[in-house]
Design goal:
The protein is an alpha/beta fold. It is built from 17 helices and 13 strands. It has three domains: 175 residues, Rossmann fold (3-Layer(aba) Sandwich); 93 residues, Rossmann fold (3-Layer(aba) Sandwich); 130 residues, Glutaredoxin, CATH 3.40.30. It has a six-stranded mixed sheet. α1 crosses α2, α1 crosses α5 and α6 runs parallel beside α7. It is globular. The two termini are 46 Å apart.
Length: 493
């Protein structure tokens, strides 16, 4: 199917039956919202709130958008704003996964972090403050009726169509912002009244099950205070530290039939089992929702038909406890497999291969190229690099951080590819520096070294002195953890 733009690919996500995890007497299905273009259910809402604001004139063309989010809404908004030409500022508590920050920034958004101790209500307060100070548009996802309406128009209709011949006995979801819950539940109550709506929440943060009313600020525009029953939990984006007004509307309209508590450990366990037993990559919140659905299924009569929402993908959680026990290095069993055949192993010396040093002495033209590159006064910082080298990437990031633009000579790039010229230039470089490895950094013709050499020179001040001596402007106050820039497999060792 062809589309005119990425926004047209949102929705129409598949439903999959669980064969290995579900009890035999119940049909248990999951709706894979990770199949949205940015990997989560929030893509639906992100497009809806921006379109709604444009249609009613609340958002002007080119105006900056600001929103508070645990990540998925921000990623969806980053996609929509990139496509529609709106700058985006995301406010996010520091304890949410770093993958989300990097994805939003990759999509062009700016990310402002707030202290974890201030929780979700702190994020909201900061977003409101920024919107007021700068005249930005704030979608207010927790209160915006367009958030719920898009799920009534799309998600709910998809569910009814997928189960037109066999209606659901139960639909299971987390509460989150309340958009999915309110929007889907309204339609199910009207068009499939026998379907029970089940809401899952953390067992240690039972905001809904407690029956304790959510405190509200006197001004409706102000973020609500933290609910007294809230406690930190591992299900990112599943339950903030307050009951959103959209969730409250679902409760007030009598749309919730059952509240299912879920332990954080069960959420992690089921997310891993979805991967290893069903081949489904889901996040912690998805694991939590399916854990609640499995507990429910154990109490249901034979022939019950249950659908659980999987709001996002497990790739959003690589830096969280979900992947804490998944090593990047080989374990003992994998090492044994490696050793079961003789070749291509880490624990035996690699066969020598002719590298640049094995080439005939470099033609004078290649020496001239290296010499001319290093002696060019207009580009005193030079890095000889490879395009697909992680250490070269680390140095590129480092130079960006200190505000220096080096002259990068990619030895494997198209300009040096013909007739093996890149290898000859590399050989000439080796004769000049006495080093065969790449990358190599020079400042004012002075050899600084490879990646870690350059980082060491920054740490002990030698690089800063060399930059000053050659008149190169740089951020002298930059505070950089150079170890954090190295490839993760190097740091792990």
């Amino acid at each position: 199917m062809r589309h005119d733009n990425i926004l047209q690919t949102i929705g129409r996500t598949p439903v999959v039956r669980l064969a290995a995890l579900a009890p035999a007497h119940v049909e248990l299905y999951v709706k894979l919202e990770s199949r949205n273009p940015m990997g989560s259910v929030k893509d639906r809402m992100a497009l809806a709130v921006i379109q709604h604001a444009l249609e009613r004139g609340a958002l002007r063309p080119g105006q900056t958008v600001v929103e508070a989010t645990s990540g998925n809404t921000g990623i969806g908004l980053a996609m929509v704003c990139a496509r529609l030409g709106h700058p985006l500022v995301i406010v996010m508590a520091e304890n949410f996964s770093v993958e989300r920050r990097r994805l939003m920034r990759f999509l062009g958004a700016q990310v402002v972090l707030t202290p974890a101790a201030l929780k979700g209500s702190g994020m909201l307060a900061k977003a409101r403050e920024l919107a007021a100070a700068h005249g930005w548009f704030w979608p207010r996802q927790f209160d915006n009726e367009a958030n719920a309406d898009v799920h009534s128009r799309t998600t709910a209709i998809e569910i009814l169509d997928d189960f037109a011949d066999a209606p659901l006995s139960h639909w299971v979801s987390g509460s989150g912002t309340g958009g999915t819950l309110l929007g889907v539940a309204r339609v199910l109550r009207r068009r499939s009244p026998a379907t029970q709506v089940v809401v899952c929440e953390p067992d240690n943060a039972p905001l809904l099950a407690s029956g304790v009313p959510q405190p509200r600020a006197g001004d409706a525009a102000l973020p609500p205070p933290s609910h007294p029953e809230f406690r930190p939990h591992p299900m990112q984006g599943w339950t903030p530290d307050f009951v959103p007004s959209l969730v409250q509307r679902a409760l007030d309209e009598g749309l919730v039939d059952c509240i299912e508590p879920v332990a954080g450990a069960d959420a992690l366990r089921v997310a891993r089992e979805l991967a290893t037993r069903e081949g489904i990559l889901a996040g912690i919140s998805g694991g939590a929702t399916v854990a609640g659905a499995l507990r429910l299924a154990g109490r249901l009569p034979r022939g019950s038909r249950v659908l659980a929402m999987l709001p996002d993908t497990g790739e959003r959680y690589l830096s969280t406890p979900l992947f804490a026990d998944v090593d990047a290095e080989m374990d003992a069993a994998e090492l044994a497999l490696s050793r079961s055949t003789p070749g291509f192993r880490f624990d035996v010396p690699a066969p020598s291969s002719p590298g640049p040093a094995g080439h005939a002495p470099s033609p004078e033209a290649d020496h001239d190229f290296v010499r001319g590159t290093l002696d060019d006064p207009s580009a005193p910082v030079v890095m000889f690099a490879l395009q697909w080298c992680e250490f070269c990437w680390a140095l590129r990031r480092f130079f960006r951080r200190i505000g220096v633009t080096p002259n990068v000579v990619d030895l494997d790039g198209a300009a040096l590819r013909s007739d093996g010229r890149g290898l000859r230039v590399r050989a000439a470089l080796r004769e000049r520096s006495g080093q065969a490895t790449i990358p190599q950094v020079f400042v004012g013709g002075q050899w600084i070294g490879g990646c870690t050499d350059t980082f060491d020179a920054w740490t002990d001040g030698r690089l800063a002195r060399a930059l000053r001596d050659t008149g190169v402007a740089f951020d002298q106050d930059a505070r950089i953890d150079t170890r954090a820039l190295l490839p993760s497999w190097v740091v792990a060792r």
